[in-house]
Amino acid sequence: xxxxxxxxxxxxxxxxxxxxxxxxxxxxxxxxxxxxxxxxxxxxxxxxxxxxxxxxxxxxxxxxxxxxxxxxxxxxxxxxxxxxxxxxxxxxxxxxxxxxxxxxxxxxxxxxxxxxxxxxxxxxxxxxxxxxxxxxxxxxxxxxxxxxxxxxxxxxxxxxxxxxxxxxxxxxxxxxxxxxxxxxxxxxxxxxxxxxxxxxxxxxxxxxxxxxxxxxxxxxxxxxxxxxxxxxxxxxxxxxxxxxxxxxxxxxxxxxxxxxxxxxxxxxxxxxxxxxxxxxxxxxxxxxxxxxxxxxxxxxxxxxxxxxxxxxxxxxxxxxxxxxxxxxxxxxxxxxxxxxxxxxxxxxxxxxxxxxxxxxxxxxxxxxxxxx
Length: 372
Hints:
Layout (H helix, E strand, L loop, with lengths): L34 H5 L17 E2 L8 E2 L8 H14 L3 E4 L9 E10 L2 E14 L9 H5 L7 E7 L6 E3 L5 E3 L4 E14 L3 H8 L14 H28 L1 E2 L5 H21 L4 H7 L5 H7 L1 H21 L5 H8 L3 H8 L1 H20 L1 E2 L2
């Protein structure tokens, strides 16, 4: 693939700059019930089974030479700084702090046990939990109450759950309402660290798999900033192209209902997994979104589902026109060490479809007229 950050930036799935259906399976940490679900209507090459996309989609005449305005390709220092920071967190590029109290921006490693009315509750405890102080990762002013503490200190943090926060349970399975409740967390500040970016750390993180546009390896801090600048520019170009094709392509006939039904089923499955991950009933998640039932949710999501499938068909139509094929090597290049996990989770067809989207975008970006 032209640019990849899968292993460099935690939580960023390859292709996340595209629409969800032909680029990522929602969130990487929410798994499908079975891999067959995502891939049941897809061939192992990422194409829809028995579907010729060019019979359904009319591509714009200039599809192979789209002009991308310069303003879409500008990359700010803040954008690059964000990627750098995520990389440092992912690879634990830190140095220990032992001689002062915790400050905003420090990385704190803590153990904590939370109680409500003296009772421990599920989800209220953790060991060796790392948090950047001031990031707003933890609820309320939890992080602010760590600031000022010395490494090794043991102390209590008191927070109030906001209204409508939900519920959990104790060790016996009894329900504990969290909404508007006060919780006390017994905290141990095990250690502190600060981020430190060095040439050595960059070289170790990037290895030899990631290169700059000129083909050189990423070996220094300056190289890393250049890499992420190039990646951000590439991401912006693909986003522009995705919008362009959605606006300027047309449907020559209705999308096959089988594909739409599959997409609806995957959307419903995704919402179910969200509920399970949060320890809630599906009805609670639907109600929180203002929906009486799943049918109401899917009806409200229909435009999104149609857009998602149309985009996948556009990608396939371009691939059919250009003769673009996905190989096992392409999938390995896109997903690296996560390849087997992705295929086990979502099935080869779905993973190949995501990789196909990346290959198509590589081709389009290379052929586009760019005013940089």
